[in-house]
């Protein structure tokens, strides 16, 4: 492997170790369906070892380190990360098939995430509380302890940045368990933490199967908090498994984001965003505008534009910089997407373009699927209600603001939404009524380190990024000090 990272060991306690009850197995390149490298995965005992290392680091050097030194280490790591963008993008693209032009763009931003969190590490003060003269009351903020970070296969390094950045800035230590389908880039990340000189055990990386390694991490009594990105059904399993130990959880779950195009919008710009968002990451991101709500006067025009623009998407080998869209990240996801194409057809939606696996030369063994557009979709169809996670746009016509809002809010999800209009009043009215953790107006998927990200309803609990992104990793302690030293005898009379 040209990047020079090794993947056949786990990173535990600052050392590269062979799995105790896991093993080494091939990771599959979704562009070819073939193994591309051997990756270590851990079992329950490996997780136990990682948690023990994280606990020792938390109680030892990491807790004693002044926050500005923690910040300096994070900055050093961030600078190192910035030098490795190309190599990290190559590893991630190999593992999950995301077009390398997208991987590079995304991973190119991550150093700034770590810098942002580093900048907060020594500013996590509490506050003084106005009281009467007899006491002085103040709060201090403390790291919760060992964090289990469980990440998904679509954006492993981004999810790691969103969890490890704030956790480390807050003074926690971490066991990172990436998804079983895409473990390699998280092990590459471990190399950079090692090189930056983090004390052993502060960051541990143990790939492994969700129901084995993930489950052990969740139920481990020494894990104070789970930061999870994945499916709602898994979140419910995690919540139950962590109940006995009262493990704190934050969840970033799915989405079925409405992307609303009003007839008065700047349609060219709106179409750039709406089509880009339909097919980015081959449809595999929870914030994508997979439901395109279009006001009737421009409906035909928008449907035609989607058809025309789908033909311009260059589907191909993801490591080719010219490729716009790679394959689905694994075979199960390919099958899921194709099954939703059948569901959409059966429900009576109009398949405008795409909908099939691509079997042309060079791509037939990979998990490639055509950019797909359904029009004439109604809000209650399954393809408009359920998360497909494939490159499938569902175009839904509407009349007026009220119907737009009602359709937008009609799914169990509430992660993100976008709306396009030239009417400022309407932009504010509609944005306020949409049930979502984030609303973009005349833009889409603008996501940064400083802007809180997360969902309402079935899309999750808690926020990542922004100053709020540190809250789940901190406890508040209130200290109340008497200024008089006197305490009345309750039994005096
Ligand atoms: P997806 O459909 O995106 O694969 P999952 O929720 O299944 O979503 O996976 C997201 C992450 O959760 C992965 O790292 C996976 O290994 C992990 N995971 C799956 N099942 C469990 C579980 N029972 N306990 C803890 N983690 C799990």
Automatic annotation (TrEMBL):
Q: What class of enzyme is it?
A: oxidoreductase
Q: Which residues are the active-site ones?
A: 252
Select a single GO molecular function from the record's annotations and give it: aldehyde dehydrogenase (NAD+) activity
> Where in this chain does the record put each Aldehyde dehydrogenase domain?
24-478
EC? 1.2.1.3
For whether the record's keyword set contains Membrane, the answer is no
- Presence of keyword Mitochondrion: no
Q: Which UniProt keywords apply?
A: Oxidoreductase
Record family assignment: Belongs to the aldehyde dehydrogenase family.
Spell out the PANTHER family in the cross-references: ALDEHYDE DEHYDROGENASE-RELATED
User: What is the recorded name of this protein?
Assistant: Aldehyde dehydrogenase (NAD+)
Annotated source species = Sphingosinicella soli
């Amino acid at each position: 492997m040209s990047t020079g990272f090794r993947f056949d060991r786990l990173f535990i306690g600052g050392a590269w170790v062979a799995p105790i009850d896991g093993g080494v197995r091939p990771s599959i390149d979704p562009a070819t369906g073939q193994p591309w490298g051997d990756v270590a995965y851990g079992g329950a005992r490996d997780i136990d070892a990682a948690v023990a290392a994280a606990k020792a680091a938390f109680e030892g050097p990491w807790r004693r380190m002044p926050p500005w030194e923690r910040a300096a280490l994070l900055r050093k790591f961030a600078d190192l990360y910035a030098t490795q963008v190309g190599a990290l993008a190559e590893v991630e693209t190999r593992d999950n098939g995301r077009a390398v032009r997208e991987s590079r763009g995304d991973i190119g931003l991550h150093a700034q995430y770590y810098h942002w969190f580093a900048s907060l590490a020594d500013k996590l003060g509490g506050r003084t509380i106005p009281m009467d003269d007899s006491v002085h009351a103040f709060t201090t903020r403390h790291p919760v302890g060992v964090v289990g970070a469980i990440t998904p296969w679509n954006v492993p390094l981004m999810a790691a940045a969103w969890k490890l950045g704030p956790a480390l800035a807050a003074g926690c230590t971490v066991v990172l368990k990436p998804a079983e389908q895409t473990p390699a880039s998280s092990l590459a990340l471990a190399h950079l933490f090692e090189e930056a000189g983090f004390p052993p055990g502060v960051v541990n990386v143990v790939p492994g199967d969700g129901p084995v390694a993930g489950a052990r991490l969740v139920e481990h009594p020494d894990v104070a908090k789970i930061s999870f990105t994945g499916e709602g059904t898994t979140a419910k399993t995690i919540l139950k498994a962590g109940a006995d130990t009262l493990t704190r959880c934050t969840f970033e779950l799915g989405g079925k984001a409405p992307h609303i195009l009003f007839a008065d919008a700047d349609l060219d710009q709106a179409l750039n965003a709406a089509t880009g968002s339909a097919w980015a990451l081959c449809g595999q991101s929870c914030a994508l505008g997979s439901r395109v709500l279009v006001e009737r006067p421009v409906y035909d025009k928008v449907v035609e534009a989607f058809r025309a623009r789908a033909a311009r998407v260059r589907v191909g080998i993801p490591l080719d910089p010219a490729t716009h869209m790679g394959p689905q990240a694994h075979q199960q996801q390919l099958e899921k997407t194709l099954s939703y194409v059948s569901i959409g057809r059966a429900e009576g939606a109009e398949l405008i373009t795409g909908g099939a696996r691509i079997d042309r030369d060079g791509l037939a063994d990979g998990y490639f699927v055509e950019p797909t557009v359904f029009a004439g979709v109604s809000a209650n169809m399954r393809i408009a209600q359920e998360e497909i996670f494939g490159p499938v746009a569902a175009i839904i016509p509407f009349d007026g603001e009220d119907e737009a809002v009602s359709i937008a809010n009609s799914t169990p999800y509430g992660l993100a939404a976008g709306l396009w209009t030239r009417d400022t009043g309407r932009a504010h009215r509609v944005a306020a009524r949409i049930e979502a953790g984030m609303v973009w107006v005349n833009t889409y998927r603008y996501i940064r380190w400083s802007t809180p990200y997360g969902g309402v309803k079935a899309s999750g609990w808690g926020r990542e990024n922004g100053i709020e992104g540190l809250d789940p990793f901190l406890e508040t302690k209130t200290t109340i000090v008497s200024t008089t030293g006197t305490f009345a005898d309750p039994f005096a009379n």
